[in-house]
């Protein structure tokens, strides 16, 4: 795999921009798990006119946004160990109950980070190779197979400029054919029977440029939507 030539960092989406796009795509009435890292940012951008119930693997159902300062309760944390609020009617459970929700198919969506995603939807998101092995995969496997839809947030390429959207994953897998959609710092890509289908692309980046930093083939059966910057801290799909 050759090294990709990435557009400058300032031309790409930030972690907060990616979280905004994910939040805008979650429909009203959904029960959603937010994984460690970038996914937890989604809680800060959920549309106020939608009723979305957030689940956290450590035993929270009805999680609110991240809070700091005097409002923060050190006993209430999300998957990223950030202090969070609780919505009215929220409940706290032990891990066995939380995992029963995950494994029992009670989650509509899970949003996870990713190291690699393959064209068929395979996901690698817990170790990069055997030398970097950690004690366990945690709940990632349960979430990947238990949720009805799996959304992945990630940079399009590694820090070294290597593609992360691949024909086949080279890292140990978290789940086989589990990914439905990928949100990166340059695009939103769906997984279909065709492979990777470009759903949306950041304004100012061409499809040819995006393909040059993607190992898997990007299919465009219809023109992709455009992600535009409304301000420095806000993005949206162009109407």
Automatic annotation (TrEMBL):
SUPFAM superfamilies named in the record: NagB/RpiA/CoA transferase-like
InterPro entries reported for this sequence: 3-oxoacid_CoA-transf_B, CoA_trans_fam_I, CoA_transf_AS, NagB/RpiA_transferase-like
A GO MF term: CoA-transferase activity
UniProt keyword Coiled coil present: no
Name of the molecule in the record: 3-oxoadipate CoA-transferase
Organism of derivation: Bordetella genomosp. 4
SMART domains, sorted: CoA_trans
Pfam family, one: CoA_trans
Lineage per the UniProt record: Bacteria, Pseudomonadati, Pseudomonadota, Betaproteobacteria, Burkholderiales
NCBIfam families named among the record's database cross-references: pcaJ_scoB_fam (TIGR02428)
Keywords of this entry: Transferase
Gene3D superfamilies noted in UniProt: Glutaconate Coenzyme A-transferase
Similarity section: Belongs to the 3-oxoacid CoA-transferase subunit B family.
